[in-house]
Amino acid sequence: MTTTGFDYVITRTLEAPVEQVWAAWTRADRYAQWANAEEVVLDVRPGGAWSSVMVIPGGTRVPLSGRYTEVVENKRLVIGMNVPGREELAIMTLDLAADGDQTRITLSQTLGSVEERDQSEFGSNMLLDGLTAFLSAA
Questions:
Q1: Which of 11, 27, 49, 59 has its CA at a distance of 20 to 30 angstroms from the CA of residue 39?
Q2: What is the pLDDT of residues 49-58, one digit of tens each?
């Protein structure tokens, strides 16, 4: 895991209990709905594999895969993603904190360049926008 580089941290408060937010990230049927993903497979356990095909605006399909490196139910997911041309996983940490019927979610990553960081931060904000809309419709 990269320990030096270019970081980002995004924190939001979601209008849903932590169990509902956890299920949205860890159940394939729910994840597919809010993340604009198809062919979602989630084996949510340390070392478990995940894969999906993201459908980005314009219809481009982007296959993604990786594995979970840490799983603490309703609290933390550390998700590694395979990146073409890199041997090590790109790691994203997702932390959840319950606050009654709300959940504070924090996404963070350390990347190797400003461009990678900016692209990943943009993508993470898009994911959180989709998650927020999904939870408000539930």
A1: 11
A2: 999 998 888 8
Please give the radius of gyration of the chain, using alpha carbons only, rounded to the nearest integer.
Answer: 14
CA distances from 78 to 15, 22, 69, 73, 136 (A): 23, 13, 5, 11, 25
Q: Which of 74, 106, 104, 111 is nearest to 93 (CA)?
A: 106
Helix segments in the chain, DSSP class H: 18-26, 28-34, 114-137
CATH of domain 6-137: 3.30.530.20
Average pLDDT, the chain: 92
Q: What angle do helix axes 114-137 and 18-26 make, rounded to 10 degrees? A: 120
